[in-house]
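Consider the tokenized backbone below.
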């Protein structure tokens, strides 16, 4: 994935070099390169998306064996209070200054398991502190049992 991103960056550089070359040519040539700035920008965006995907994949590969079993992240202290913008996720709970440099709410939770959650239908799930907070706030009829270390 990272190799593809590097190749995309090289392609964007080559497109920009071609645009510079055309801009030094005669008037007819100068006018033909007007799309190249956009093309280079799109390819650079593709390279950034490839890099971000590679980072997400690395996070998945590095999940601890005792990680929470839910497929989305939360604030470890405040629960389901995350907001993501521009690839940065932050807790929106008043006074919390936690932030992560990736879309934490779209990747599996990496926090350690601390509770057994039993929903109203009897389904059991192992969750972290943050998901336990969210369950208390959002699930009717659910029970939480702290796990003993």
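A designed sequence for it:
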């Amino acid at each position: 994935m990272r190799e593809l991103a590097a190749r995309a960056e090289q392609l964007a550089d080559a497109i920009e070099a071609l645009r510079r070359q055309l801009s030094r040519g005669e008037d007819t040539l100068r006018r033909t390169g007007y799309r190249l700035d956009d093309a280079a920008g799109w390819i650079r965006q593709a390279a950034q998306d490839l890099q971000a995907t590679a980072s997400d994949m690395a996070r998945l590969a590095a999940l601890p064996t005792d990680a929470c079993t839910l497929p989305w992240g939360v604030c470890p202290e405040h629960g389901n209070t995350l907001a993501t913008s521009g690839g940065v996720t932050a807790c929106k709970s008043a006074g919390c200054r936690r932030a992560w440099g990736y879309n934490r709410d779209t990747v599996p939770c990496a926090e350690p398991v601390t509770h057994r959650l039993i929903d109203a239908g009897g389904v059991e799930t192992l969750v972290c502190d943050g998901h336990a907070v969210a369950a208390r706030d959002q699930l009717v009829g659910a029970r939480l049992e702290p796990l003993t270390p």
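The chain has a mean pLDDT of 92.
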